[in-house]
Target: Glycosaminoglycan xylosylkinase
Amino acid sequence: MKLKHRVIVTGTLFLGMSVLFLVGILFASSREDAAETVKNVPKVEPPVGEEQDPDLQGEEGLERNRRLQQKVDHTNRDEALEKQPRGPEVKELAAQRGPKGRELSDDPQFKIPPEIIGEGLRVGDLRDGVGEEGRDPWKVWGSWVRQDHFYPDDAFWSADMDSILHAMATYPILSFDVGHRGTQLKASMFLGEQRTAFKPRRYQRDEVIQGDPYAGFDRHNAEIAGFHLDGLLGFRIAPPVVGRRVNLTYVWPVTTDTLRNTYFKDTYGNTCFYGKCYYCRKEEAACANGEVMEGSVTLWLPEWYELKTRRHPYQRTYRPNHKAKWETDDLYCNNYIISKSDSDYFYGLLEFTDSCIFDFLMGNADRHHYETYAKASKHGKLLHIDNGKSFGNPYHDEMSILAPLQQCCRVRQSTWDRLQELIHSEPSLSQRLDQSMRRDPAYPILTSLHLQAIDRRLDIIDKSIRDCFAAHGRDTVLCAKWPPDT
Model:
């Protein structure tokens, strides 16, 4: 009996030691994996020329550093873009995620059902099918893009532009993924082999955004309106944007696991997701109406069009009670731009005044960084990309947006001519904009209050330029080119 008891005890001890040994191995392995994971987390850098302030503590410090980090929306785009699937990879990815044994194009869930358009949404006056002479819309887009404009002068109202917008609103989605790294929630969508960016709706059309002029989430309808306004002003440096409703159930088979893992149902049964970005979190998710989510679709630039991100000379501090130098020094433009003929900012002077006119009309006070074509000589065109912080408050005209115009007092001759045409002819700019946006399936895009604000702000711009005429002379203010002696 004693021998039997000893055998049982010995066996139990041996088994216990074996279990402890195995647990130790698993624990060590998990620590190594965790360390490797932490090591591989990408570091998010603060904006160019800015540092996070270690002296600010508590809520003020958190808010300061959060606002600083919100300024890196485009900085890491190129690196993230390289990790996205392209061309043939997209087809292979879609085939892997599609229903087994069937082509995606043959499956009914990849047709465009009526509920994707939804009540109150229509394709408007967009022309169906391909463009003129049966041309493929994505190839037309690729053939249009130049370093200083995205489409020809006569293309804004063309059948080809309509076919591009129609394709963006209706083409089957072959891949639905998280967007490139940044601070605002977005998704990456491939329509065939064409990449696009999808920004979900965050607000009702008539919601007024209170607080700072850059407050709130990005507005998807602002991206749509920005494209149409840019075209009407003749700039042609905003990529096409269209409204679209996406049925999240229909695109589930082609949604990546990374995005799927952020899906959940809210208390009303709506499908929501919060994606992957610096400030993306469940508490600030975007939610569909049931399964159908409205958003904006922005056309991606061709692969050869490399972007360079620059810090805007009129960047805000994004700190309460802390003003930037340009906000306190009326000679800022003369001392830091006009007199610095060896700097990139000097060559970009007319780009700053063009863009501030564009931004003021929309109420966009968040142009902290900007992008140009990376291989452009000198400065290059300041591209009107990322206009989501526009059209927040139709009752407020944020005069600080016009600082580059009012301080520098230099305006491109062609911009002045176009503004005068819009001011002194019918229909008004707001009526033209509303007419153009009727082409969008998500129409109406802007409320009547926002449209009225555009005409009011156009008069303010006109007065500001005429004040420059009075102070410096018309011949000095209006420039056919810059520098004028080149």
